Protein backbone atom coordinates (compact mmCIF):
# COMPACT_ATOMS: atom_id res chain seq x y z
CA UNK A 1 0.00 0.00 0.00
CA UNK A 2 0.91 3.68 -0.21
CA UNK A 3 -0.18 6.43 2.19
CA UNK A 4 -1.32 9.87 1.09
CA UNK A 5 -0.99 12.27 4.00
CA UNK A 6 -3.54 15.07 3.55
CA UNK A 7 -2.71 18.43 5.12
CA UNK A 8 -3.98 21.62 3.46
CA UNK A 9 -5.31 19.71 0.44
CA UNK A 10 -8.70 18.56 1.68
CA UNK A 11 -10.11 17.57 -1.70
CA UNK A 12 -10.04 14.50 -3.95
CA UNK A 13 -9.64 16.31 -7.28
CA UNK A 14 -6.81 18.50 -8.58
CA UNK A 15 -4.67 17.06 -5.82
CA UNK A 16 -1.22 16.31 -7.23
CA UNK A 17 0.01 14.38 -4.20
CA UNK A 18 -3.07 12.17 -4.12
CA UNK A 19 -2.86 11.67 -7.89
CA UNK A 20 0.80 10.70 -7.53
CA UNK A 21 -0.10 8.14 -4.86
CA UNK A 22 -2.94 6.77 -6.98
CA UNK A 23 -0.55 6.23 -9.90
CA UNK A 24 1.65 3.85 -7.92
CA UNK A 25 -0.36 0.66 -8.59
CA UNK A 26 -0.76 0.25 -4.85
CA UNK A 27 -3.96 0.86 -2.85
CA UNK A 28 -3.93 4.39 -1.37
CA UNK A 29 -4.48 4.80 2.37
CA UNK A 30 -5.79 8.36 2.98
CA UNK A 31 -4.55 9.93 6.22
CA UNK A 32 -4.99 13.19 8.12
CA UNK A 33 -3.13 13.93 11.35
CA UNK A 34 -4.49 16.24 14.04
CA UNK A 35 -1.06 17.24 15.34
CA UNK A 36 -1.14 19.03 18.73
CA UNK A 37 1.98 21.05 17.85
CA UNK A 38 0.06 22.47 14.87
CA UNK A 39 -3.28 22.82 16.66
CA UNK A 40 -1.68 25.00 19.33
CA UNK A 41 -1.42 27.69 16.65
CA UNK A 42 -5.06 27.21 15.57
CA UNK A 43 -8.28 28.94 16.61
CA UNK A 44 -11.92 27.87 17.04
CA UNK A 45 -13.18 29.26 13.74
CA UNK A 46 -10.40 27.66 11.70
CA UNK A 47 -10.68 24.32 13.45
CA UNK A 48 -14.45 24.39 12.83
CA UNK A 49 -13.73 24.89 9.12
CA UNK A 50 -11.12 22.14 9.21
CA UNK A 51 -13.48 19.62 10.79
CA UNK A 52 -16.22 20.37 8.26
CA UNK A 53 -13.76 19.94 5.39
CA UNK A 54 -12.56 16.65 6.87
CA UNK A 55 -16.12 15.34 7.21
CA UNK A 56 -16.83 16.25 3.59
CA UNK A 57 -13.63 14.60 2.35
CA UNK A 58 -14.35 11.54 4.44
CA UNK A 59 -17.82 11.26 2.85
CA UNK A 60 -16.19 11.28 -0.59
CA UNK A 61 -13.83 8.48 0.40
CA UNK A 62 -16.69 6.51 1.94
CA UNK A 63 -18.65 6.79 -1.31
CA UNK A 64 -15.63 5.36 -3.10
CA UNK A 65 -15.20 2.34 -0.83
CA UNK A 66 -12.48 3.75 1.41
CA UNK A 67 -12.14 6.06 4.40
CA UNK A 68 -10.08 8.97 5.64
CA UNK A 69 -8.04 7.89 8.65
CA UNK A 70 -7.98 10.79 11.12
CA UNK A 71 -5.34 10.33 13.84
CA UNK A 72 -4.56 12.54 16.85
CA UNK A 73 -0.84 12.54 17.59
CA UNK A 74 2.43 14.19 16.69
CA UNK A 75 2.87 13.74 12.95
CA UNK A 76 6.36 12.26 13.40
CA UNK A 77 4.77 9.43 15.42
CA UNK A 78 1.43 9.04 13.64
CA UNK A 79 2.56 8.95 10.01
CA UNK A 80 5.13 6.11 10.34
CA UNK A 81 2.78 4.20 12.65
CA UNK A 82 -0.06 4.27 10.10
CA UNK A 83 2.33 3.44 7.26
CA UNK A 84 3.74 0.48 9.18
CA UNK A 85 0.29 -0.78 10.18
CA UNK A 86 -0.75 -0.89 6.51
CA UNK A 87 2.57 -2.24 5.25
CA UNK A 88 3.08 0.89 3.13
CA UNK A 89 6.46 1.34 1.48
CA UNK A 90 5.93 5.05 0.71
CA UNK A 91 4.17 8.10 2.15
CA UNK A 92 3.26 10.95 -0.21
CA UNK A 93 2.21 14.47 0.75
CA UNK A 94 1.92 17.95 -0.70
CA UNK A 95 4.49 20.58 0.26
CA UNK A 96 3.78 23.41 2.66
CA UNK A 97 6.07 26.43 2.91
CA UNK A 98 5.96 27.79 6.45
CA UNK A 99 8.83 27.24 8.85
CA UNK A 100 6.61 25.28 11.24
CA UNK A 101 5.44 22.97 8.45
CA UNK A 102 8.97 22.37 7.21
CA UNK A 103 10.21 21.49 10.69
CA UNK A 104 7.30 19.04 11.06
CA UNK A 105 8.00 17.49 7.66
CA UNK A 106 11.70 17.11 8.40
CA UNK A 107 10.85 15.24 11.59
CA UNK A 108 8.39 12.99 9.71
CA UNK A 109 10.97 12.23 7.00
CA UNK A 110 13.50 11.23 9.66
CA UNK A 111 10.98 9.02 11.47
CA UNK A 112 9.96 7.32 8.22
CA UNK A 113 13.58 6.75 7.28
CA UNK A 114 14.13 5.02 10.62
CA UNK A 115 11.37 2.58 9.64
CA UNK A 116 12.71 2.08 6.13
CA UNK A 117 9.71 3.88 4.58
CA UNK A 118 10.17 6.24 1.65
CA UNK A 119 8.86 9.81 1.76
CA UNK A 120 7.86 11.75 -1.34
CA UNK A 121 6.54 15.32 -1.42
CA UNK A 122 4.83 17.10 -4.30
CA UNK A 123 4.30 20.78 -5.06
CA UNK A 124 0.54 21.29 -5.21
CA UNK A 125 -0.69 24.40 -3.34
CA UNK A 126 0.69 26.87 -5.87
CA UNK A 127 1.30 26.75 -9.61
CA UNK A 128 5.01 27.52 -9.58
CA UNK A 129 7.02 26.22 -6.66
CA UNK A 130 9.50 28.44 -4.79
CA UNK A 131 12.73 28.77 -6.70
CA UNK A 132 11.09 28.41 -10.11
CA UNK A 133 10.45 32.14 -10.64
CA UNK A 134 13.60 34.04 -9.76
CA UNK A 135 15.37 37.29 -10.60
CA UNK A 136 18.78 37.33 -12.25
CA UNK A 137 20.30 37.70 -8.81
CA UNK A 138 18.86 36.28 -5.61
CA UNK A 139 16.53 33.47 -4.63
CA UNK A 140 13.20 35.23 -5.05
CA UNK A 141 11.56 38.47 -6.11
CA UNK A 142 10.84 41.10 -3.49
CA UNK A 143 8.89 43.31 -5.92
CA UNK A 144 5.58 41.85 -7.02
CA UNK A 145 5.30 43.52 -10.43
CA UNK A 146 8.39 41.67 -11.71
CA UNK A 147 7.17 38.37 -10.27
CA UNK A 148 3.73 38.89 -11.84
CA UNK A 149 5.12 39.38 -15.34
CA UNK A 150 6.83 36.00 -15.22
CA UNK A 151 4.00 34.25 -13.36
CA UNK A 152 1.32 35.26 -15.85
CA UNK A 153 3.38 34.08 -18.83
CA UNK A 154 4.29 30.68 -17.41
CA UNK A 155 2.25 27.70 -18.53
CA UNK A 156 -0.04 26.30 -15.85
CA UNK A 157 -0.55 22.58 -15.32
CA UNK A 158 -3.96 21.05 -16.01
CA UNK A 159 -5.99 19.95 -12.97
CA UNK A 160 -5.06 16.50 -11.65
CA UNK A 161 -7.73 13.80 -11.95
CA UNK A 162 -9.58 12.39 -8.97
CA UNK A 163 -8.54 8.83 -8.04
CA UNK A 164 -10.82 5.96 -8.99
CA UNK A 165 -12.41 3.74 -6.36
CA UNK A 166 -10.08 0.97 -7.48
CA UNK A 167 -7.10 3.15 -6.52
CA UNK A 168 -8.13 3.33 -2.87
CA UNK A 169 -7.56 0.98 0.05
CA UNK A 170 -10.57 -0.50 1.85
CA UNK A 171 -9.75 0.96 5.25
CA UNK A 172 -11.92 2.16 8.12
CA UNK A 173 -11.12 4.80 10.72
CA UNK A 174 -12.43 6.25 13.96
CA UNK A 175 -14.92 9.15 14.12
CA UNK A 176 -13.56 12.64 13.57
CA UNK A 177 -13.22 14.48 16.90
CA UNK A 178 -15.39 17.48 17.72
CA UNK A 179 -14.24 20.97 18.61
CA UNK A 180 -14.77 20.15 22.28
CA UNK A 181 -12.82 16.91 21.94
CA UNK A 182 -9.89 18.96 20.66
CA UNK A 183 -10.19 21.49 23.49
CA UNK A 184 -11.67 24.36 21.48
CA UNK A 185 -14.68 26.51 22.33
CA UNK A 186 -17.38 27.25 19.80
CA UNK A 187 -16.19 30.06 17.51
CA UNK A 188 -17.41 33.61 18.00
CA UNK A 189 -17.88 33.93 14.23
CA UNK A 190 -20.23 31.95 12.04
CA UNK A 191 -17.83 29.76 10.05
CA UNK A 192 -18.18 29.69 6.26
CA UNK A 193 -19.05 26.40 4.60
CA UNK A 194 -15.71 24.89 3.61
CA UNK A 195 -16.23 21.86 1.38
CA UNK A 196 -15.27 21.05 -2.19
CA UNK A 197 -18.92 21.19 -3.26
CA UNK A 198 -19.28 24.68 -1.78
CA UNK A 199 -16.01 25.78 -3.36
CA UNK A 200 -17.00 24.56 -6.80
CA UNK A 201 -20.40 26.22 -6.51
CA UNK A 202 -18.75 29.51 -5.57
CA UNK A 203 -16.26 29.25 -8.44
CA UNK A 204 -19.06 28.56 -10.89
CA UNK A 205 -21.15 31.49 -9.62
CA UNK A 206 -18.21 33.89 -9.59
CA UNK A 207 -16.94 32.95 -13.03
CA UNK A 208 -20.42 33.15 -14.57
CA UNK A 209 -20.65 36.92 -14.07
CA UNK A 210 -19.06 38.71 -11.10
CA UNK A 211 -15.53 38.02 -12.36
CA UNK A 212 -16.22 40.41 -15.26
CA UNK A 213 -16.92 43.19 -12.76
CA UNK A 214 -14.11 42.25 -10.41
CA UNK A 215 -11.71 45.01 -11.44
CA UNK A 216 -14.39 47.66 -10.99
CA UNK A 217 -16.09 46.31 -7.87
CA UNK A 218 -13.45 44.50 -5.82
CA UNK A 219 -12.71 47.50 -3.58
CA UNK A 220 -16.31 48.16 -2.48
CA UNK A 221 -17.09 46.17 0.68
CA UNK A 222 -20.87 46.63 0.45
CA UNK A 223 -20.87 44.89 -2.95
CA UNK A 224 -20.48 41.19 -3.74
CA UNK A 225 -17.47 41.99 -5.86
CA UNK A 226 -14.94 39.45 -4.55
CA UNK A 227 -14.82 35.69 -4.92
CA UNK A 228 -14.90 34.80 -1.19
CA UNK A 229 -12.74 31.81 -2.10
CA UNK A 230 -9.97 32.49 0.42
CA UNK A 231 -11.18 29.93 3.03
CA UNK A 232 -11.24 27.29 0.29
CA UNK A 233 -7.74 28.15 -0.87
CA UNK A 234 -6.62 28.08 2.77
CA UNK A 235 -7.90 24.55 3.35
CA UNK A 236 -7.43 23.32 -0.19
CA UNK A 237 -11.06 22.42 -0.84
CA UNK A 238 -10.45 23.77 -4.34
CA UNK A 239 -7.25 23.19 -6.27
CA UNK A 240 -5.29 26.11 -7.75
CA UNK A 241 -5.23 24.54 -11.20
CA UNK A 242 -8.98 23.89 -11.18
CA UNK A 243 -9.64 27.48 -10.15
CA UNK A 244 -7.25 28.90 -12.72
CA UNK A 245 -8.77 26.76 -15.48
CA UNK A 246 -12.20 28.15 -14.56
CA UNK A 247 -10.88 31.71 -14.87
CA UNK A 248 -9.37 30.90 -18.27
CA UNK A 249 -12.72 29.57 -19.48
CA UNK A 250 -14.31 32.78 -18.21
CA UNK A 251 -11.76 34.79 -20.20
CA UNK A 252 -12.57 32.75 -23.31
CA UNK A 253 -16.28 33.55 -22.87
CA UNK A 254 -15.66 37.28 -22.36
CA UNK A 255 -17.29 39.50 -24.96
CA UNK A 256 -15.38 42.69 -24.18
CA UNK A 257 -11.73 43.56 -23.65
CA UNK A 258 -12.72 45.07 -20.30
CA UNK A 259 -14.17 41.71 -19.23
CA UNK A 260 -10.95 39.91 -20.11
CA UNK A 261 -8.94 42.54 -18.25
CA UNK A 262 -11.12 42.00 -15.20
CA UNK A 263 -10.43 38.26 -15.32
CA UNK A 264 -6.74 39.06 -15.57
CA UNK A 265 -7.01 41.30 -12.50
CA UNK A 266 -8.45 38.38 -10.52
CA UNK A 267 -5.63 36.15 -11.74
CA UNK A 268 -3.23 38.85 -10.58
CA UNK A 269 -4.60 38.45 -7.06
CA UNK A 270 -3.94 34.71 -7.30
CA UNK A 271 -0.37 35.58 -8.23
CA UNK A 272 -0.07 37.78 -5.12
CA UNK A 273 -0.92 34.69 -3.06
CA UNK A 274 1.91 32.77 -4.71
CA UNK A 275 4.33 35.69 -4.45
CA UNK A 276 3.95 35.70 -0.68
CA UNK A 277 4.34 31.91 -0.56
CA UNK A 278 7.68 32.27 -2.36
CA UNK A 279 8.79 35.03 0.02
CA UNK A 280 7.90 32.93 3.08
CA UNK A 281 9.62 29.83 1.71
CA UNK A 282 12.92 31.70 1.50
CA UNK A 283 12.35 33.87 4.59
CA UNK A 284 10.54 31.80 7.25
CA UNK A 285 11.68 34.21 9.96
CA UNK A 286 9.40 36.95 8.56
CA UNK A 287 6.57 35.50 10.67
CA UNK A 288 8.20 37.24 13.64
CA UNK A 289 10.83 39.56 12.14
CA UNK A 290 10.65 42.55 9.79
CA UNK A 291 11.58 41.67 6.23
CA UNK A 292 13.04 45.11 5.53
CA UNK A 293 15.38 46.30 8.22
CA UNK A 294 15.91 49.92 9.27
CA UNK A 295 18.98 51.56 10.72
CA UNK A 296 17.21 51.84 14.06
CA UNK A 297 14.45 49.91 15.79
CA UNK A 298 10.92 51.13 15.03
CA UNK A 299 9.65 52.72 18.23
CA UNK A 300 6.18 51.17 18.23
CA UNK A 301 3.78 52.37 20.94
CA UNK A 302 2.60 50.06 23.69
CA UNK A 303 -1.00 51.16 24.22
CA UNK A 304 -3.18 48.24 25.38
CA UNK A 305 -6.34 50.36 25.53
CA UNK A 306 -5.97 51.50 21.92
CA UNK A 307 -5.25 47.94 20.79
CA UNK A 308 -8.36 46.67 22.57
CA UNK A 309 -10.49 49.41 20.99
CA UNK A 310 -9.17 48.37 17.58
CA UNK A 311 -9.97 44.71 18.26
CA UNK A 312 -13.46 45.56 19.52
CA UNK A 313 -14.29 47.93 16.68
CA UNK A 314 -14.71 50.95 18.95
CA UNK A 315 -12.11 53.34 17.56
CA UNK A 316 -14.63 55.97 16.48
CA UNK A 317 -13.58 55.57 12.84
CA UNK A 318 -16.63 53.92 11.22
CA UNK A 319 -14.98 52.08 8.31
CA UNK A 320 -12.31 50.69 10.67
CA UNK A 321 -14.86 49.58 13.24
CA UNK A 322 -17.06 47.97 10.59
CA UNK A 323 -14.14 45.89 9.39
CA UNK A 324 -13.12 44.77 12.84
CA UNK A 325 -16.68 43.78 13.67
CA UNK A 326 -17.05 41.92 10.39
CA UNK A 327 -13.94 39.96 11.36
CA UNK A 328 -15.52 38.85 14.63
CA UNK A 329 -18.94 38.13 13.11
CA UNK A 330 -17.89 36.38 9.89
CA UNK A 331 -14.35 35.19 10.44
CA UNK A 332 -13.56 37.12 7.26
CA UNK A 333 -12.95 40.71 6.21
CA UNK A 334 -13.12 42.42 2.85
CA UNK A 335 -9.64 42.86 1.36
CA UNK A 336 -9.78 46.65 0.97
CA UNK A 337 -10.87 46.93 4.59
CA UNK A 338 -8.08 44.59 5.69
CA UNK A 339 -5.63 47.11 4.29
CA UNK A 340 -7.41 49.98 6.05
CA UNK A 341 -7.53 48.38 9.50
CA UNK A 342 -3.89 47.31 9.18
CA UNK A 343 -2.84 50.81 8.21
CA UNK A 344 -4.87 52.25 11.08
CA UNK A 345 -3.23 49.97 13.63
CA UNK A 346 0.32 50.57 12.44
CA UNK A 347 0.14 54.22 11.36
CA UNK A 348 -2.67 55.79 13.44
CA UNK A 349 -2.21 53.74 16.59
CA UNK A 350 1.54 53.30 15.96
CA UNK A 351 1.24 49.68 17.07
CA UNK A 352 3.54 46.87 15.97
CA UNK A 353 2.18 44.92 12.99
CA UNK A 354 2.80 41.68 14.91
CA UNK A 355 -0.06 42.51 17.28
CA UNK A 356 -2.42 42.83 14.33
CA UNK A 357 -1.12 39.67 12.71
CA UNK A 358 -1.73 37.74 15.94
CA UNK A 359 -5.34 38.98 16.11
CA UNK A 360 -6.00 38.09 12.48
CA UNK A 361 -4.51 34.65 13.07
CA UNK A 362 -6.95 34.21 15.95
CA UNK A 363 -10.07 35.42 14.16
CA UNK A 364 -9.72 34.70 10.44
CA UNK A 365 -11.22 31.53 9.00
CA UNK A 366 -8.92 31.98 5.99
CA UNK A 367 -5.72 32.74 7.91
CA UNK A 368 -2.77 31.85 5.72
CA UNK A 369 0.66 32.47 7.18
CA UNK A 370 2.29 33.66 3.96
CA UNK A 371 -0.57 35.95 2.92
CA UNK A 372 -1.20 37.42 6.35
CA UNK A 373 2.46 38.02 7.16
CA UNK A 374 2.94 39.55 3.71
CA UNK A 375 -0.12 41.76 4.06
CA UNK A 376 0.71 42.95 7.56
CA UNK A 377 4.32 43.71 6.73
CA UNK A 378 3.14 45.55 3.61
CA UNK A 379 0.81 47.72 5.71
CA UNK A 380 3.48 48.23 8.35
CA UNK A 381 6.03 49.35 5.73
CA UNK A 382 8.44 46.61 6.79
CA UNK A 383 7.84 43.96 4.12
CA UNK A 384 8.51 43.15 0.50
CA UNK A 385 7.11 45.69 -1.95
CA UNK A 386 5.70 47.44 1.12
CA UNK A 387 3.47 50.49 1.37
CA UNK A 388 5.89 53.45 1.62
CA UNK A 389 5.93 54.68 5.20
CA UNK A 390 4.86 58.20 4.16
CA UNK A 391 1.69 56.99 2.41
CA UNK A 392 -0.91 56.61 5.13
CA UNK A 393 -4.50 55.63 4.38
CA UNK A 394 -6.97 58.30 5.48
CA UNK A 395 -9.85 56.26 6.97
CA UNK A 396 -12.46 59.00 6.41
CA UNK A 397 -11.52 59.50 2.77
CA UNK A 398 -11.40 55.74 2.21
CA UNK A 399 -14.86 55.34 3.75
CA UNK A 400 -16.33 58.04 1.52
CA UNK A 401 -14.69 56.59 -1.59
CA UNK A 402 -15.39 52.90 -1.13
CA UNK A 403 -18.54 52.89 1.00
CA UNK A 404 -20.14 56.15 -0.15
CA UNK A 405 -23.65 55.33 1.08
CA UNK A 406 -22.27 53.79 4.30
CA UNK A 407 -24.11 50.51 3.61
CA UNK A 408 -21.23 48.36 4.77
CA UNK A 409 -20.66 50.51 7.84
CA UNK A 410 -24.30 50.40 8.90
CA UNK A 411 -24.41 46.62 8.48
CA UNK A 412 -21.66 46.07 11.02
CA UNK A 413 -22.00 49.18 13.18
CA UNK A 414 -25.71 49.23 14.08
CA UNK A 415 -25.23 52.21 16.40
CA UNK A 416 -24.96 54.27 13.19
CA UNK A 417 -28.02 52.77 11.51
CA UNK A 418 -29.98 56.02 11.64
CA UNK A 419 -27.09 58.35 10.83
CA UNK A 420 -26.72 59.88 7.38
CA UNK A 421 -23.79 58.90 5.19
CA UNK A 422 -22.50 62.46 5.49
CA UNK A 423 -22.51 62.28 9.28
CA UNK A 424 -20.89 58.85 9.27
CA UNK A 425 -18.06 59.89 6.95
CA UNK A 426 -17.70 63.20 8.79
CA UNK A 427 -17.89 61.66 12.27
CA UNK A 428 -14.45 62.92 13.21
CA UNK A 429 -15.44 66.53 12.45
CA UNK A 430 -18.68 66.56 14.45
CA UNK A 431 -18.88 68.25 17.82
CA UNK A 432 -19.23 65.82 20.75
CA UNK A 433 -22.78 67.03 21.43
CA UNK A 434 -23.76 66.39 17.83
CA UNK A 435 -22.28 62.88 17.93
CA UNK A 436 -24.18 62.26 21.16
CA UNK A 437 -27.43 63.34 19.50
CA UNK A 438 -26.94 61.22 16.35
CA UNK A 439 -25.56 58.01 17.86
CA UNK A 440 -25.15 58.15 21.64
CA UNK A 441 -23.80 54.59 21.86
CA UNK A 442 -21.02 55.06 19.30
CA UNK A 443 -17.71 56.55 20.48
CA UNK A 444 -15.84 59.53 19.18
CA UNK A 445 -12.44 59.07 17.51
CA UNK A 446 -9.81 57.75 19.91
CA UNK A 447 -6.98 59.51 18.01
CA UNK A 448 -6.64 62.42 15.62
CA UNK A 449 -5.72 60.99 12.22
CA UNK A 450 -3.81 64.03 10.93
CA UNK A 451 -1.71 64.25 14.08
CA UNK A 452 -0.99 60.51 14.12
CA UNK A 453 -0.07 60.52 10.43
CA UNK A 454 2.64 63.10 11.16
CA UNK A 455 3.84 61.09 14.14
CA UNK A 456 3.98 57.90 12.05
CA UNK A 457 6.17 59.60 9.45
CA UNK A 458 8.47 60.88 12.21
CA UNK A 459 8.60 57.40 13.73
CA UNK A 460 9.75 55.84 10.48
CA UNK A 461 12.17 58.65 9.71
CA UNK A 462 13.85 58.02 13.07
CA UNK A 463 13.99 54.31 12.28
CA UNK A 464 15.58 55.16 8.93
CA UNK A 465 18.13 57.38 10.64
CA UNK A 466 16.73 60.49 8.94
CA UNK A 467 15.71 62.33 12.12
CA UNK A 468 17.60 63.03 15.31
CA UNK A 469 14.46 63.64 17.38
UniProtKB/TrEMBL annotation:
The record marks 300, 353, 376 as: Electron transfer via tryptophanyl radical. GO terms for biological process: nucleobase-containing compound metabolic process; response to stress. InterPro entries: Crypto/Photolyase_FAD-like_sf (IPR036134), Crypto/Photolyase_N_sf (IPR036155), Cryptochr/Photolyase_FAD-bd (IPR005101), Cryptochrome/DNA_photolyase_1 (IPR002081), DNA_photolyase_1_CS_C (IPR018394), DNA_photolyase_N (IPR006050), Rossmann-like_a/b/a_fold (IPR014729). Residues 1-127 form the Photolyase/cryptochrome alpha/beta domain. GO terms for molecular function: deoxyribodipyrimidine photo-lyase activity; DNA binding; FAD binding. Its cofactor is FAD. Transmembrane segments: none annotated. Keywords: Chromophore, FAD, Flavoprotein, Lyase. Binds 1 FAD per subunit. It comes from the Archaea. Pfam families: DNA_photolyase (PF00875), FAD_binding_7 (PF03441). Belongs to the DNA photolyase family. This is Deoxyribodipyrimidine photo-lyase. It comes from Natrinema altunense. The lineage of its organism: Archaea, Methanobacteriati, Methanobacteriota, Stenosarchaea group, Halobacteria.
Amino acid sequence: MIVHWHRRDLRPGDNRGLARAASADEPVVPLFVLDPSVLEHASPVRVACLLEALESLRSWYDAHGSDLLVVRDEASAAVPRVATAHDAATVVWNEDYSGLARERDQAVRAALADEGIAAESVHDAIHHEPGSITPNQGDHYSVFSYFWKKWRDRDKRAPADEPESSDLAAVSGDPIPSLADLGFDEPEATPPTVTTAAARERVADFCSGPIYEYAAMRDYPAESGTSRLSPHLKWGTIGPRELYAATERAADRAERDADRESVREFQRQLAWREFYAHVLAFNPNTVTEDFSGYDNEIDWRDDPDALEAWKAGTTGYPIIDAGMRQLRADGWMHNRVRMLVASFLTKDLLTDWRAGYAWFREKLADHDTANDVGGWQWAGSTGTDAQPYFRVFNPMKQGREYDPDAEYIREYVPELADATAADIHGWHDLEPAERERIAPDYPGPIVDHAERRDRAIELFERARGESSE
